[in-house]
Amino acid sequence: MGSLFRSAEMTLCQLFLQSEAAYACVSELGELGLVQFRDLNPDVNVFQRKFVNEVRRCDEMERKLRYLEKEIKKDGIPMLDTGENPEAPQPREMIDLEATFEKLENELREVNQNAEALKRNFLELTELKQILRKTQVFFDEMADPSREEEQVTLLGEEGLRAGGQALKLG
Fold this sequence. Notes:
The chain has helices spanning 19-32, 52-74, 91-142, 156-161, and strands spanning 150-152, 167-169. The protein is mainly α. A two-stranded antiparallel ribbon has the order 1-2. Helix 2 (52-74) packs parallel to helix 3. It is elongated. It starts with 18 loop residues before the first helix and ends with a strand.
């Protein structure tokens, strides 16, 4: 790995590459880490540049990877870090990677939404269970031990007509 410190000796070069070979050449040079690129068209708007769509796609894939990494770390799942940067994928592999990242992100978002829904349902059901326990304690205290078959309904008479059940206390 080279060094880009000011004291390191550098040489200014200009490369002319064919469009078909540009990706492979730039990725190889980038993996060596010995090159610094200089913008020869500083007046050109960012959105008017030739490879702006590819850069946007890469930014979007990077965002998805950061999201996946954040969720993995949040759940305490160990990740293997080799400390090395992987090789730049070929353009045809980028399409597969993009689809895979999209699928993983969607699945993870769905899992998170389902987990939240399950937590909400659990809390609601726990609350209802506690209400029923407190209500049962109330009716147990109110029940007269001299009466053997007293019916108390939690829903009232309307609830019985609608199909509710009566509690028999005693």
